[in-house]
């Protein structure tokens, strides 16, 4: 990457709900020598963001926040996106819906050889990137890494952790079931509107293809084995929880399977992945939770109810400060090796994972790409695991940053460990 770039990281979408948290994290916790700028359509709104964040800081960090450079760019103005991409080593974008706004920026990043991180949870968008840019991104050694927030980073890195656990024993994975056993938090208007836009504007055939278990596998890596079936309702003795349908399962599973394919299927030739929501206690609250989940999903399918949901959750708004303060998540990864051995891995976040935690993960991923080239080079040289990082392509968190990012996230307060 050219060292003459004006910035290490530019955050596009700093005025949005998630973008503000990523900006705040970079200014509060990022190294002072990181060359950082924020970008968006409205100078006034961007100035308000940096003023608000500066008011929460002291000393040099407060002064830095007050003077953080502002770049004006619009998703509908390709020239402005080109200028931003040409100015920085890494772009972190939270501007969605990505099916509507994402592709022009990704295009600029590939042409100007600028690494890219985003917060999308839209599987059809990632599929579009793969179809349009995979070969060019590989040829240009550009790392395009979508879904580095709660969609789908914990699923991806948790699976990597379990694959590595068994690899150290000379074993391969047969399956991983990721179970969300604890979660407190809320949902933002941006998330709702992105989902609604995907449903409203994407042809049904495209949505159905995106639900395919191997929708995100590269064209030269077709997968033929049937995937693990989604969980609707059952009891799981491994985690002492009732398991329910988890709405994020299909997108996260496709993302994890892309990592499996890009890593030469080193997890295990017959590897299978699935997810669920785990409910502790008696069957009654579990049944209520199941109907609540199904009701939420159905409300997004039908236009009248979807219109109501969009009115209840306007863009730019999100969970209350109290909900964010008390947020947390715990995921357990029940892994089985090809010879039948079981192990359980854990990922924990002690902050709201959907927004504050997503801001943290996005920021750490962006800093990983911008600042850790020497660490990546050393990891390749020492071959610290069988799951090496890629230099270019439409990648995943595991294939672009691997355990280099895991170590960053652990230092930032997230927990990754093997329980049994």
SSE inventory with pairings:
Layout: E1 7-12, H1 17-29, E2 36-40, H2 43-54, H3 59-66, E3 70-72, H4 78-87, E4 88-93, H5 98-101, H6 103-111, E5 115-118, H7 123-139, E6 143-145, H8 153-167, E7 173-184, H9 189-201, H10 204-210, E8 233-236, E9 241-244, H11 249-262, E10 272-279, H12 283-301, H13 303-312, H14 321-325, E11 328-337, E12 342-349, H15 356-371, H16 373-382, E13 393-394, H17 397-400, H18 402-411, E14 415-418
Parallel strand pairs: 1-2, 1-4, 2-3, 4-5, 5-6, 6-13, 7-10
Antiparallel strand pairs: 7-11, 8-9, 9-10, 11-12, 12-14
Describe the protein:
There is one protein chain. By secondary structure, this protein is an alpha/beta fold. It has two domains: 7-150 and 357-404, NAD(P)-binding Rossmann-like Domain (Rossmann fold), CATH 3.40.50; 153-352. It is built from 18 helices and 14 strands. Helix 7 (123-139) links the parallel strand 5 (115-118) and strand 6. The longest helix is centred in the last third of the chain and has 19 residues, at 283-301. It is globular and about 55 Å long. 48% of the residues are buried. The mean pLDDT is 88.
